[in-house]
Amino acid sequence: MTAVLDVQGLTVEFPTRRGTLTAVDHISFSIGEGEVLGVVGESGAGKSLTGTAVIGLLEPPGRIAAGEVRLAGKRIDNLAYEELRRIRGREIGMVFQDPLTSLNPLYTVGRQLMETIRTHTDMGEKAARDRAIEMLAEVGIPEPRRRIDQYPHQFSGGMRQRVVIAIALLARPRLIIADEPTTALDVTIQSQILKLMRQQIAEKGASMILITHDLAVVSEMADHITVLYCGKVVERGRTRELIETPAHPYTRGLIDSIPDTAHRHDRLRQIPGSIPDIRNLPTGCNFRDRCPRAQALCAEREPDLARQHATLWAACHFPLKPGETA
Amino acid sequence: MLAFIIQRLAQSILVMLVVGLISFSLFQFVGDPVNNMVGQEATIEQREALREKLGLNDPIPVRFIKWVGLAVQGDFGLSYRMGMPVADLIAQRLPATLELVALSAVMALAIGVPMGVYTGLHRHAWLSKVFLTVSLIGISIPTFLIGILMILFFGVWLGWLPTFGRRGLVDLGGWETSFLTLEGWSYIIMPAFTLALFQLTLIMRLVRAEMLEVLRTDFIKFARARGLKSRSINFGHALKNTLVPVITIMGLQIGSLLAFSIITETVFQWPGMGLLIIQGIQFVDIPIMSSYLVLIALFFVVINLIVDLLYYAVDPRLRVERTAGGAH
Amino acid sequence: MSAPVEPGTMARSSMSLPRTTDVLRRFFDGDVFYSFSRSPLTMLAFVTTLAFFVAAIFAPWLAPHDTSDIASLDLMNAFKTPVWGEYGDPAFPLGTDDQGRDVLSSIMFGLRISLLVGFAAVILAAVFGTLMGLISGYVGGVVDSVIMRIADIQLTFPAILIALMFDGIVRSVLTTEMAREFKMTSLILAIAASQWVNFARTVRGSTMVEKNKEYVQAARLIGIHPMKIMLRHVLPNVTGPVLVIGTLSLAIAILTEATLSFLGVGVPVTNPSLGTLIRIGNDFLFSGEWWMTIFPGVTLVVLVLAVNLLGDWLRDALNPKLR
User: Fold this and answer.
1) What is the pTM of this model?
2) I need a surface site. Which of A29, B138, B158, B202 has the fewest CB within 10 A?
């Protein structure tokens, strides 16, 4: 079976006056039909850039320096702008972090829905409007007939994110890329939105890449998880396996820093230090400065991604065994 | 919305009163109007009679109220130098200046906006660099020098256009217009372009800066991610969002156009208000100076009201009252 | 923490007292210098501006003739073309005017006047505007409203118009002799009066941002007058914007002075600026004596263009968002 999206060795570079920065470094992943892939990492790990690179919207001077992106077997990273434009919104839908700024404040919600449909289909004005109303209803917006003629500022944050999701789903894309879709929302609304997204992609048989810093969110939503650190994949595997028996100390640290209601009396653990500056990465393993297991080897050689057990792959010289704590 | 308009109207009236006060002070406290009106040889009695007649012996607040009362009716008294009612002088000169300013504003917008959009969209294109360089030269040449150079080039060397004056007019019931004859156009085109050039470069640079700003926003990124066509993103989404600042600046610049028309009119001997005021200033003709101030303020206030209404047309966030977005 | 001094604090305390060499190194290593060294146009503008400054400041020593010395004028020298023209004279490289004045020397002395008026007006406007902005932003409330309303109203009236009115008023208040004597001062005041608003607005914005920061509130708690601490923090923050506005204002001030002088209400004819020279030359333009207008005109444009280029570059270099 061909994967819906297959990314091999994707590398994103930014030429600057003090040399070239590699913000995404040979990342590979693939997503099967109807699957949800969680991409997790701290800010600056290259998650968002990965998403933007896939749909070909990197801001210059950022560029894809190496790698291939295939959508249903067809290479899309080398397409001309116009060809890729037809894919964006049609076959790949995108949801961004901040619903407050994702919509143009000067146009009604309906107009922004309708222009998206009409760009990708030959639907007429009337049909497009009906479809837009239908879609608003599907994402749980009450009174869609009235709301469609309102402006974004008349919607709350959660409602606006529903509109954004409606736009992303309009053309029934194969793949949704959701970049921190709930980060800007209140906690109670977060779970509603996540539920909505899960239900919608299941209904429409779409796949999804869920980009987030929040491991708790992906562990609920995703089938597979890829953990990024400093632009590199440090661990990946099936969700259950990765959450229960992580091999990389970084993943372990991320899991331990999730507030856990079952052990509420424990002190919340955190990973010491902060993510290094990509302009000035340490030698060897990027994580060694913050790693409790680091040894001399970690400074000498960068670990390669290696299979740990079952579906789990991690890039660590001294991986954790199942049950072991960092 | 009504409340907003009322508030704006109140503000406008306040502005007019402040400018009126300045204008009135000019009238009353600067120089001695009597000295300006009678000769050196006038007797004290003659002067005193004139003071009484002009109401200069009344208490100041009374004089201000009287002055406002007259000003509202368009009566600013007699020009010291020409002995004619200022209102008549202005009425005579107003059409020439308004036509000049209007044509300049249209030119500035019609050329400046497309240039700004182009340079904003194609930041690194060579044509953008040419536009930007030319615009920098544009704001570095004083208006009077542009006028002189244009006269020298098109008037003297090429002999294509008349170098001064305003002719080829058609009388439309008291309003003499340049726009209905070819001759009229040949006289107005050079001064109008001279006046427009500075505003044009300003608008171009503003639109460019705003375009660059808007193109970085999330909703443009989302519009791209939705696969919208570039044309629809650039001209539908981005350009519309640059309109608000452009409207603001254009409103502010109308005053500037009127002021710079003084220079243009001097260079081209264009018989408008600018020529009137510059002579007024040279001869310290206070009634002309103060009425000109009031008139400019009036223009400003009216233009600003129009600008506010345009905001309403462009930006729905002002138009509709904020509704609490309902249940989540 | 007890005895051992953390290395971090050492580094920080030496940071607070930077040596000149450090400052210089940081400047040459910094983004501003980098963007300068990458832009040949900016360097050209800088060199041009510098050359004009030198020519203006040292005009009494550098100029081939002393144009203010009327006795040295010889009508026999009048209307000489530039040196490459038909009636050229190597003693007058750019020709002479109707009175036999050397155009090159006139330009150098004119440049002096133009720059003097421009600089004086901008410095005055910057100081007054910054002060108004600080007060407006810090005190807030009614004071802020009043100052900003005045600024708004004043913005309606462009520089030229304010300066014109100012000039008219000065002349009607003062006697003719006094007015002549104060001509230069009133001109500087008039231009400064038309330029302060931009400074005030920018400084006000920064002040208001800074005012709500915690350290200012904290300063109040420990008994330091907040205004004192704000000055220390606001002023460095606004140095960049004020410098940018100052540079662009200098260009506008020079243009305003030239325009006023062209309209005949600027500097006295005895001390002609570039604008005055253009006006005088304009009377002879149509009879073919173009050099009397064109050379001062070109000088003015090149000067203002160079200053504008510097201002533009400075704005972009100090605004990381645009890079």
Assistant:
1) 0.78
2) B158
